[in-house]
Amino acid sequence: MTSLTETTGPLTDPLPALTTRGLGFRWEPSQPMLRFPDLDIPRGEHLFLQGASGSGKSTLLSLLSGMQIPHSGTVSILDTELQRLASSARDRFRADHIGVIFQQFNLVPYLSALANVTLPCRLSPRRRQNTRSDPEKDATELLKLLAIPEDHWQRKVTRLSIGQQQRIAAARALIGAPGIILADEPTSALDTDNRDRFLDLLLGLANERGSSVVFVSHDRGLSSHFHHQIHLGGAS
């Protein structure tokens, strides 16, 4: 069974962005249950989730996003228990309140950089309303802050570098000020300087928008950037 160790004391706040209790999940009936530590992440604060391959990091993110439902326990995002929602309602809640940066970015290949960033605002009226002026202006502001050249904004994302695609994925997650951002190993392909620069930009922009961040990585060297750290133990 995968073991899990919490590296900080209990995380408490009267108005958490994220709360979990007694989470357990298995992908197959024959597999042992993955069990996860209880979390309480205050709104606007950030959690670093570290662990080896096979420790359940990506599984936990799937549970936190509502893409999977736990076999035991509860996940509450912004005071909403995800497992109580029907599948369509979970999809709507995710679109409105959760920004996801996938490890492989999951950008839409036939859309431009700008169109990829504004996509959440087309899917969610709430995210659209949360933009500071209008989605396209907010998107261009994010692209400027993340150092994407203006002559790249209308290019298809498949014509951009991996580092540029990564920053576009971050801009897409940030637009419309979602309450929580889930990031799955987004810096794994970067060297140390670019990794730290990207992380500072991501957390700085999240702070400006009041978004909490749950950041998954195997790299313990990133933990100093975060308010809280959790270590998931398991076989590599």
Spans where pLDDT lies below 50 across 5 or more residues: 1-13
**How far apart, in Å, are the first and last alpha carbons?**
13 Å
Helix content: 25-40%
Number of strands: 11
Task: Give a written overview of the molecule.
Helices cover 33% and strands 22% of the residues. It has 236 residues and is an alpha/beta fold. Helix 3 packs across helix 5 and helix 3 runs parallel beside helix 6.
Which secondary structure elements does this structure contain, and how are they paired or packed?
Layout: E1 4-5, E2 16-25, E3 34-35, E4 39-42, E5 46-51, H1 57-65, E6 72-77, E7 80-81, H2 87-97, E8 98-101, H3 113-123, H4 125-129, H5 135-145, H6 162-174, E9 180-184, H7 192-209, E10 212-217, E11 228-232
Parallel strand pairs: 5-10, 5-11, 8-9, 9-10
Antiparallel strand pairs: 1-11, 2-3, 2-4, 2-6, 6-7
Helix pairs in contact: 3-5, 3-6
List keywords for this structure.
alpha/beta, five-stranded antiparallel β-sheet, Rossmann fold, 236 residues, 33% helix, six-stranded mixed β-sheet, 22% strand, 7 helices, disordered N terminus
